[in-house]
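Quarterly update from the structural biology core.
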Amino acid sequence: MLSQRVPNVAGVMAVENSSFGYINQAKLAVQGSLGAIGDYERRVTETSRVDPFYELYVRTWRDKARYIGPEKLGQDGPVALMRLPMVIEEVMEAWDAAKDQPQFKCEYVVSTNIEPSLEEGARVTAGRLGLDERGTEALVQQYLGYGRELRGPGVKPVPPVLFCVTKDSRDHSADSYRSLVMPMFARMEPTPKTALMHFQAGVHSYWTPETDLPLGVAPGVAKTWHDAITGGYFLAGNGQGA
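Predicted structure, tokenized:
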């Protein structure tokens, strides 16, 4: 969202990051709230979020569990259930280590494009500001725009984007990027330059240690970013729609 709104942003490079809200909304409709791992069958449950605009999401140990479970499936296969007590201990250890960090989020209204909540938030804000009908509608359109790229004459184009996803990410499967996310970027006008780096190891918290990878895939991520910057990936006129 900020890539167009901040003048000197030359591009976006991130690992396991959320895209524009309406694209995440479409991805959620395909893979559901449980996510997806490897070639295992997807179980699509809820296909959209309905968070109120005023809601603050407070994390608990369950947020660790909803990632560690699928990650263990990707790393160990179904046999991971045979050591469920140990997995539970790992969940609680991970949660205990995370307690000294802020454990709340209020992003989903924007990051999954919950338009009714965005509109309600805009109208409540307009009422507090004492805006007239014209000002209120302008604020509503501004809020609704947070879930999409900016469009129209004189608007800064979406700059180059480098997507990075890990092998065992529950939220960001490489298949969803190839079949849905990147084609949706390709339909933008003008079409931004995009590329996908799919690491063959790692989980959503990409610095998580693995066998022979004491820092997870974080060093590989850092090298990818370094090479993209120094190699000119984000320079103007260096290709579009890759």
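The first helix runs from residue 2 to 5.
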